[in-house]
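This entry is listed as follows:

___
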Amino acid sequence: MDRIGIVVKADDAAQRKADELESWLTKRGIEVIQKKNFPHGRKGLHHNKTFAPSDLFCIFVLGGDGTFLSAVRWIGNQKIPVIGVKFGETGFLAETAENDLFTVTELILNRKFSIEPRMRLLVKVIRGETERASETVLNDVVVNKGALARLAYIKTYLDDYNLTTYRADGLIVATPTGSTAYSLAAGGPIIHPAVPGIVMTPICPFTLTNRPLIVPDSVTITIRLAKKIEAGADFIQTQAVYDLVRFGEAIKRAEDMGLCEKTAILPGIIVPRSAGMLKYMNANVPGIEVPDEMIDRMKSAADPKAEGIKIVLELIEGVKAMSGIKGVHLQAIECEQILPQVIEDAGLLPRPKI
């Protein structure tokens, strides 16, 4: 037992106590690895793809439940005990308070403790036949409707059994640990950590029969967003399109399935203002893929604004040539005044009747 980790909330009081704990442990011949947990959006454990050293005896977490969950992500699939010390607003996962920290630490160093295992969820995102992501989570998984105005239609299966289709703003699937988080706020029950169960809690369901449900932890829960056409969608608006080749392949598949005859498909087109904007969307916005040559084109342009408009006109011409397209959803972020001219130059007037 010669290495211990400390994960600390971005808070002055928590940082002072973490430094005090590090000094206390170092005097006893223990090497300390301290990690700072910055708020979401700043570089820190949220964005750090490295994992905690495998030989850590334990990790102290000085913060709230958010900091605790960041520490769990840092651990990954390694079996390293975590001790929560409450410094945040919410402390369901904290085991001790600030005033008892050194008493508890002394007991841990003398091996006078017990370990309480917590179950986690293995989550996979599958599109078509391709697995797009796989993650192990301690708290919960949330499927929601995002920015859509309509309700989400969420088909849910337990193993191979078709359980129900939720009509709601979303669905939370939570472990016993996660049952005290978002699920609780949405009206779900609290599950004792020793209970081998999973709670499924709909978010603002549009029916009295869609209530929270607890199922065994042995089942595989499959969640599928019901087809928008089956749900009565008048049109389908896509994410912003910059790669005409890939988008054309997707439209061809939609045509082969007969989808283009049943509803209107409107590709999203956002006027790029700079190479940086394209790089940001390519890296951070799910579903948007920007070809490298387009980014390079914007980067080398003498007038990025004019080049962005030229790119948009080319994209509009490209999608207009696709037989399954009924229109476009054109956007110009923080430069909306250029839209009338773009619409006229693209030959989008008069508006088609569909």
Remarks:
- Residues 39-48 have pLDDT under 50 and may be disordered.
- The CA atoms of residues 174 and 335 lie 42 Å apart.
- Residues 3-109 form a domain with the Rossmann fold fold (CATH 3.40.50.10330).
